[in-house]
């Protein structure tokens, strides 16, 4: 499930959590017609919540793609691939990477 920053902030406010803020310099348009930057990210969007459940026994309540931009020291900006709101109310940032050399499935 994709969740906009606005929708996430509404949910966060209900739970007494600080809001997320999109910063200037957000990522450019996605390159794929399905809206994802890579096939690995598209696969995670479909299968990732099941992977998390299988490995952690914690369900994902909400998942959002490229939810915000973090401003890091030195003027560096970082956009996590996904944020997941877990059933135990934890927030997990997910970074998806593929690796042809390692034969990885990317997550």
Task: Walk me through the structure.
- It contains 2 helices and 5 strands, in the order ααβββββ.
- It is of the alpha+beta class.
- The chain has one domain.
- A hairpin with a 3-residue loop joins β2 and β3.
- The two termini are 18 Å apart.
Give a topology summary.
Layout: H1 5-14, H2 39-56, E1 60-65, E2 70-72, E3 76-78, E4 82-86, E5 91-94
Name a few traits of the molecule.
alpha+beta; three-stranded antiparallel β-sheet; two-stranded antiparallel ribbon
Structure described in brief:
This protein is an alpha+beta fold. About 25% of the residues lie in helices and about 20% in strands.
Q: In percent, how much strand structure appears in the residues?
A: 15-25%
- On the 0-100 scale, what is the average pLDDT? 80
Gap between N and C termini, in Å? 18 Å
- Shape call: globular
User: How many separate domains?
Assistant: 1
Uncertain parts: none
Q: Count of DSSP helices?
A: 2
Reported for the largest beta sheet, the result is:
3 strands, antiparallel
Structural class estimated from helices and strands: alpha+beta
The arrangement of helices and strands along the chain is HHEEEEE
Strand order of the largest sheet: 1-4-5
Q: What share of residues is helical?
A: 25-40%
User: What Rg is obtained from the alpha carbons, in whole angstroms?
Assistant: 14 Å
Number of strands: 5
